[in-house]
């Protein structure tokens, strides 16, 4: 009886680790979302991108000179100004 239990347990473990989520659910999972925004303007941002519309909290992610990715509120005036400045550099 014990060996039957062990075989069933191993089978369950194998099934758990070999099954993958359905492609349709994985397709709608955003890659990166922000949950907090920086309160102060970022000094010398190098570039920026916007997070996915699938994220619960809209954000602009700035790449700082230090290499850090910093989330910011796209509605803040300093964020809009920084985005505009970086767009004109292109």
TrEMBL record:
UniProt-listed InterPro entries: Chemokine_b/g/d, Chemokine_IL8-like_dom, Interleukin_8-like_sf
Residues of the Chemokine interleukin-8-like domain: 30-86
Source superkingdom: Eukaryota
Keywords carried by this UniProt record: Cytokine, Signal
GO biological process: immune response
GO molecular function: chemokine activity
Leader sequence segment: 1-19
A GO cellular-component term linked to this record: extracellular space
Family, similarity comment: Belongs to the intercrine beta (chemokine CC) family.
Identification of the protein by name: CL3L1 protein
Organism annotation: Oriolus oriolus
Gene: Ccl3l1
């Amino acid at each position: 009886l014990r060996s039957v239990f062990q075989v069933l347990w191993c089978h369950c473990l194998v099934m758990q680790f070999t099954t993958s989520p359905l492609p349709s659910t994985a397709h709608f999972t955003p890659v990166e979302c922000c949950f907090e925004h920086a309160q102060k303007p970022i000094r010398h941002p190098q570039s920026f991108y916007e997070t996915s519309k699938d994220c619960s909290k809209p954000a602009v992610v700035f790449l700082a000179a230090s290499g850090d990715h910093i989330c910011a509120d796209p509605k803040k005036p300093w964020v809009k100004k920084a985005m505009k400045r970086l767009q004109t550099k292109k």
